[in-house]
């Protein structure tokens, strides 16, 4: 009887203790959830000091909860306190060691590396995030992670790496205008204007009258020296929004380049020679004006290394008699030789006296994109 009574008492005691432990654990978990939700609210509104304290409290209530650890690490990172980055990283590394394929953890580590400015570490963790396991919308989340990496690389002026990531991004974009327009802007920031033009054209396939896509395509084509294509898209942009003065000015500059370019493949020899004559005269005017602005005597033979402008004047004078030979079938290299003088004058005067305007700017742009301008 005594043994039975003791056994029943022990069982009752164990049950009571188990019930108390269960209630305590449930209360702690409930308190942890409340603190966690408060932390999410404060973090979302930028009150990171409060959020950190609340996430710490939630974690003390449930020390093994990985979501609490991840949220605490994010708040420590986003507080913009460099002293807290090490603590944030320690939490994230512990989570990564338990689940190295977790994309959310890798993305958080990538952002820590970005805060430190480490291109190598940020790129590694962003790639881990892209190709890891996402809880939902994997394709959309991969693209967002890649865009974030691209923006970081652009900020660090790592243009070649950003361009490589952009090419991968463009291959995975869904067929909607907004995504292609965003990619076009990123390509332009990476100075890959051909890539930007291709993305703007993709957007125009979905929305042919989209002003942003038309203007972006015109600007990208202009930057890459494809002036005929630029004029086509810029005219469309002006039709879509006649009030945009920037697009109007760019269209005027593009049309002036097209009207001044002697290397265009679809003009007659007579028109080519007329354009060369006009460019040669324009270069002389620019040279004289720049020399006057810089206080340089073009006819001086003293100290010829002080300014390159007198030497350019000498080259111009030597080339001038050759203009009358432009119509000679035997002088096939003469147009290039004369325009070389024009281009050297435009480039040097731009370096000496600043960026030109009007036709001089058109000639300068042709000189910089000569091969593309011939198309």
CATH superfamily of the largest domain: Tetratricopeptide repeat domain
Uncertain regions: pLDDT < 50 for 5+ in a row? none
**Average pLDDT rating:** 88
Number of strands: 0
Report the oligomer. Answer: single chain
Q: How would you classify the helix and strand content by structural class?
A: mainly alpha
Provide a count of the helices: 18
Structural shape: elongated
CATH architecture of the largest domain: Alpha Horseshoe
Short description:
The chain is an all-alpha fold and 375 residues long. The protein has 18 helices and no strands.
What does this structure look like?
With 375 residues, this protein is mainly α. The protein folds into two domains: 24-207, Tetratricopeptide repeat domain (Serine Threonine Protein Phosphatase 5, Tetratricopeptide repeat), CATH 1.25.40.10; 269-373, no CATH class. Helix content is 76%, strand content 0%. It has helices at 2-44, 48-61, 66-78, 82-98, 103-116, 119-130, 138-155, 159-171, 177-189, 193-206, 211-223, 227-240, 245-260, 269-294, 309-319, 334-353, 358-368, 370-373. The model has no long low-confidence stretch (mean pLDDT 88).
Brief descriptors of the model:
0% strand; Serine Threonine Protein Phosphatase 5, Tetratricopeptide repeat; 2 domains; mainly alpha
Summarize the SSE layout with pairings.
Blueprint: H1 2-44, H2 48-61, H3 66-78, H4 82-98, H5 103-116, H6 119-130, H7 138-155, H8 159-171, H9 177-189, H10 193-206, H11 211-223, H12 227-240, H13 245-260, H14 269-294, H15 309-319, H16 334-353, H17 358-368, H18 370-373
Helix pairs in contact: 1-2, 2-3, 3-4, 3-5, 4-5, 5-6, 6-7, 7-8, 8-9, 9-10, 9-11, 10-11, 11-12, 11-13, 12-13, 13-17, 14-15, 14-16, 15-16, 16-17
């Amino acid at each position: 009887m005594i043994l039975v009574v003791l056994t029943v008492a022990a069982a009752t005691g164990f049950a009571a203790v188990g019930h108390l432990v269960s209630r305590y654990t449930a209360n702690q978990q409930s308190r942890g959830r409340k603190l966690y939700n408060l932390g999410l609210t404060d973090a979302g509104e930028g009150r990171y000091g409060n959020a950190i304290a609340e996430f710490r409290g939630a974690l003390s209530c449930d020390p093994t909860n990985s979501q609490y650890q991840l949220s605490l690490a994010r708040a420590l990172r986003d507080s913009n306190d460099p002293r807290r980055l090490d603590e944030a990283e320690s939490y994230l590394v512990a989570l990564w060691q338990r689940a190295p394929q977790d994309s959310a953890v890798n993305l958080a580590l990538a952002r820590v590396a970005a805060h430190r400015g480490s291109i190598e570490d940020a790129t590694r963790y962003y790639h881990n995030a892209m190709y890891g396991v996402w809880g939902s919308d994997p394709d959309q989340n991969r693209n967002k992670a890649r865009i974030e990496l691209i923006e970081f690389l652009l900020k660090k002026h790592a243009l070649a790496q950003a361009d490589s990531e952009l090419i991968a991004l463009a291959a995975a974009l869904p067929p909607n205008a907004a995504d292609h327009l965003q990619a076009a802007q990123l390509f332009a920031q990476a100075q890959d204007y051909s890539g930007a033009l291709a993305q703007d054209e993709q957007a125009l396939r979905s929305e042919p009258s989209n002003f942003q896509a038309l203007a972006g395509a015109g600007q990208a084509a202009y930057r890459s020296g494809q002036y005929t294509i630029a004029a086509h898209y810029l005219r469309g942009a002006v039709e879509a929004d006649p009030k945009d003065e920037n697009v109007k000015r760019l269209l005027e500059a593009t049309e002036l380049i097209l009207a001044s370019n002697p290397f265009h493949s679809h003009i007659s020899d007579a028109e080519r020679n007329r354009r060369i004559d006009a460019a040669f005269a324009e270069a002389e005017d620019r040279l004289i004006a720049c020399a006057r602005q810089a206080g340089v005597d073009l006819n001086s033979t003293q100290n010829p290394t002080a300014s390159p402008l007198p030497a350019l004047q000498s080259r111009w004078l030597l080339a001038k008699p050759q203009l009358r030979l432009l119509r000679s079938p035997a002088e096939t290299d003469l147009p290039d030789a004369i325009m070389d003088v024009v281009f050297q004058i435009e480039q040097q005067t731009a370096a000496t006296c600043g960026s030109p305007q009007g036709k001089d700017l058109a000639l300068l742009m042709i000189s910089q994109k000569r091969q593309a301008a011939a198309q």
